[in-house]
Structure formats: C-alpha cells, structure tokens
UniProtKB/TrEMBL annotation:
The gene is purA. IMP binds at D13, E14, G15, K16, N38, A39, G40, H41, T127, R141, T236, R304. Its cofactor is Mg(2+). It is found in: Cytoplasm. Its main location: cytoplasm. PROSITE patterns: ADENYLOSUCCIN_SYN_1. This is Adenylosuccinate synthetase. Belongs to the adenylosuccinate synthetase family.
C-alpha cells in the first residue's frame, strides 16, 4: 500500500518534523492535511536547521512533491514568507503545491484570535495564528479558498458579502474594522505570488495513489488536541488523527497502509488544559534547557516555554487506539540519558478507582497518575545507531512503551538531526 500517515501521539511537538524528514527519503509526495501555521516542525539535515510552519517537511527531498492540502487553513503571507526563508537557505521549493480547496486564513482571523485570547473569559492559550477563526468561517461557509484566488471578481464579491459580519465581530471585541480595498490588495498580491502552485487536489492525490506513488501524510499537533477526541475546549480546531488524511484528501480510507505515531520519550504541552504528569518548575528545567539548543523545550512556533512531565502511557495508548498505529517513533530518548530513575505513568485513578478510558478534560484535571519507576541507563545514547547497542535499561524503556501501547517501536530518535536515529526492521 502506498499511503502512510504520520501523526502526533501526545500534545504536539513530539518530533514529527524530524521523522517526516527522515521518512521522506522514501517518498514521492508529502502532504500536510490539517492545521495551519500553528505548527512548528523542526528539521535538522544537510540543508540546515529549519522550523517549518506550513510547508510539508518533505520539501527537502529532491523530486518529492510537497502538497499543502485540503483540510489546512493557510495564511498566504506566512506561506510566502516561509518559502522566501527556505529558498534563501538554498532549498528548491518549485515542488510546493497548494490545494484549490484549502482555506485562506485572513488577517482578520489572526486579529480575532488575538482579541479572544486577550479576554480572560475565552482564552485557552492558542498560538494566536487565527486557526480557530479560520475554521469557524469554513464551518459557517464564510471562508475563501485558494481556488478563489483564480477568479478575482467572484472573490471580491465574497469579500463584500462577509466583511460586514467580520467587522461587526472585530468591533464588538474591541478591534478595528477592515476596508474592502485592504483585503482586495492582499488578494491581488497572493494571486500573483501563489496562483501557479494551486492544484485540483482530489484528482491529484488519487492519480498519485493509482500510479503507486509513495505518499506520506504529515499530521500537525497530536491526538490530545483533536477537536473531537482531545481535551476540549483546550484543543485546536481540526482533527490531527490519521483518518482525517483520507477525509480531507478525498481518497478511500482503505488506501492507508501504514500509520506512524510519533511520541516523545516524556511529555510536553503548550497552552492551557489538564496535564496529569506535569512536573513542577525545577524538575521541568532539567528537560527544558535554556533555549540555546535547537532541541530545548520552547515552542517552535511561539517560543513559549513548554510545560513538561513524565511519559504518560494512557495518552499514548489512547492515541494508538483512535489512530490505529502500525508503528511508533519515540523521539528524544537521549534526553533521559542522565537520569538515575525515570517515572512512567501507566494508569489513572479517578476518585480512588483505576479507570480504563480517557476521561474528559474536566475529569483529567482530577486524575491521579499511577507511576512505575524505571532505573535510568546513565550513558550517552546519541551516537548509537543499532537497537542492540542501546543500554539494557533504555531497551527496557522501549519495551515498556511497546507493552503498554500494544504497538511496535520502529524508530528511536537519539538527537535532533536526521541521521540521529535508530531504525528497527
Ligand atoms: P513537531 O512539532 O512534532 O515536529 O516537533 P517540534 O519540532 O515542535 O519539537 C520537537 C523538538 O525535539 C525539536 O526541537 C527537535 O529538534 C527535537 N527532536 C526531535 N527528535 C529528537 C531526538 O530524538 N532527540 C533530541 N535531542 N531532540 C529531538
Ligand atoms: P505542532 O504541529 C503544540 C496548541 C496551542 C493551544 C491549542 C490551540 O508543532 O505539534 P491553536 O493555535 O491551534 O488554536 O491552539 O493547541 N497548539 C500546539 N501545541 N504544537 C503544535 O503544533 C500546536 N499547535 C497548536 O498551544 O493549546
Ligand atoms: Mg512543533
């Protein structure tokens, strides 16, 4: 089967960028299928170090098509900026295509998100990139899509129709109104820069599948931030789960052969919401670093210090259940190299009783994690490339992940760079 989907198994920032960059060596097409520039996917390879927000991480492989597909909300200004930045680092971006059905994230979506976050009542700690408001406009059918950039008259007509509602909301939230001309100028500029990259996505993807092309769908964020299945309301506004690649891509779900879940060897999250295994300040600082290294725990999009905690296996198990992982990639095992003991949460107690389901956000605030303590390995794993060469206790850690999740660990990250990885057959 030629379709692989890769998604986050925790709260986002698991190391998806690194694993996509590695796997894309074997791919003909890499496709982003949800989210927008709330993503920050870190890639370190022979071309340099990158934090990609909208461009699929397969862009570095020569000849690989990178498709920003339906299901995404794309800020064209950010895309143009990101293309410029990676081109300046010598990366060929001619293979970047955009779905005609992708939603255009407008400047006012960003403003509305910012205003909503400023209000103590509605803020949840978003990335303030306008994601929720762009998806809301899609749902209420007020959004523009990339196809509209190819037909200015119709596009302007749509802007005239929706702008009064947008401006009323902006003014009610204490923002400023937009003029039609401001938006028309943007549309002219975006068309000039991006029109050549727009493709009709359903035939594009299905033809590639029929031709046996190897396609990787790259998820953004992670299962716990799924709008339906995550810690609502502290979630994003899309579905970062494998099935959504087929829903938004317009191809049969039966075409998906592999589903790779990416997880970190511990837990991290940005934004508000429950986090059962969260560590307090000083303990967390050990994982976080100062921010000077590419792999320190600061948001790749917002620069916010990430909240950190011990590995939470009920979360990974839940992600495996809802996605159907065929394999797991565990990143950052090297970050545990110095610990004497490592705690892993293997269950939750709610009101004193062990539970066997993922509770809602309100209950998750109240659960008591059940921990096991594993002995550390106290040695450097960063130069190891074969599973058998990992210290015994590191292998035991991986085996615990396999036992608790019921899924085989195929990839183990031992550093941020592309080749700092162990691949098991
Ligand atoms: P993504 O959003 O899932 O792509 O993850 P991010 O890029 O936001 O965050 C993952 C962080 O971990 C980045 O700083 C990566 O450079 C780093 N990283 C990924 N895999 C590894 C690994 O195996 N070891 C180390 N030390 N860092 C890693
Ligand atoms: P990647 O793809 C981590 C979080 C925000 C907030 C919630 C909603 O790099 O893993 P949004 O801006 O989407 O409306 O914010 O989701 N969030 C992320 N956290 N990694 C990300 O992306 C995230 N994208 C959004 O912090 O809690
Ligand atoms: Mg990230």
């Amino acid at each position: 089967m030629s379709v692989t989907v890769l998604v986050g198994a925790q709260f986002g920032d698991e190391g998806k960028g690194k694993i996509v960059d590695y796997i894309s060596a074997e791919m003909d097409m890499v496709v982003r299928f949800q989210g927008g520039d709330n993503a920050g996917h870190t890639v370190v390879n022979e071309s340099g170090a990158f934090k990609l927000h909208l461009i699929p991480c397969g862009i570095f492989k020569k000849g690989c098509v990178a498709l920003a597909n339906t299901g995404m909300v794309i800020n064209p200004d950010e895309l143009i900026k990101e293309l410029g930045e990676i081109e300046a680092q010598g990366v060929d971006t001619s293979n970047l295509k955009i779905s005609s059905r992708a939603i255009i994230l407008m400047p006012y979506h960003i403003e509305l998100d910012g205003l909503s976050e400023k209000s103590g009542r509605t803020g949840i700690g978003t990335t303030k990139r306008g994601i929720g408001y762009a998806y809301a406009d899609r749902a209420r059918r007020n959004a523009l899509r990339f196809e509209n950039l190819l037909d200015h008259e119709y596009c302007f007509e749509r802007v005239r129709a929706v702008l009064p509602t947008v401006n009323a909301e902006l003014l009610a939230k204490g923002g400023r109104a937009y003029t039609e001309e401001e938006i028309f100028d943007k549309i002219r500029f975006w068309s000039e820069k991006l029109a050549d990259r727009i493709v009709e996505p359903v035939s594009y993807v299905n033809k590639a599948i029929s031709a046996g092309k190897r396609i990787l769908f790259e998820g953004q964020l992670g299962a716990m931030k799924d709008i339906d299945l995550g810690i609502y309301p502290y979630v994003t506004s899309s579905n970062p789960v494998a099935a959504y690649a087929a829903v938004s891509g317009g191809f049969p779900i039966s075409k998906i052969g592999e589903i790779v879940g990416v997880m970190k060897a511990f837990s991290s999250a940005v934004g508000d919401g429950p986090f059962p295994t969260e560590m307090d300040g000083s303990e967390a600082d050990g994982f976080r670093g100062s921010g000077n290294q590419i792999d320190d725990e600061f948001g790749a999009r917002t620069g916010r210090a990430r909240r950190l905690g011990w590995l939470d296996m009920p979360i990974v198990k839940y992600a495996a259940t809802i996605n159907g992982f065929t394999s797991i990639a565990v990143c950052k095992i090297d970050k545990l190299d110095t610990y004497d003991e490592i705690k892993v949460c293997v269950g939750y107690k709610l009101d004193g009783k062990e539970i066997d389901y993922m509770p809602s956000a309100r209950e998750l605030y109240r659960v008591e994690p059940v921990y096991v303590t594993m002995p550390g390995w106290k040695s450097d794993t960063r130069n190891i490339r074969k599973y058998e060469d990992l210290p015994l206790n590191a292998r035991k850690y991986i085996e615990l992940i396999e036992r608790e999740s019921g899924v085989k660990v195929k990839y183990i990250g031992v550093g941020p760079a592309r080749d700092e990885i162990i691949v098991r057959d």
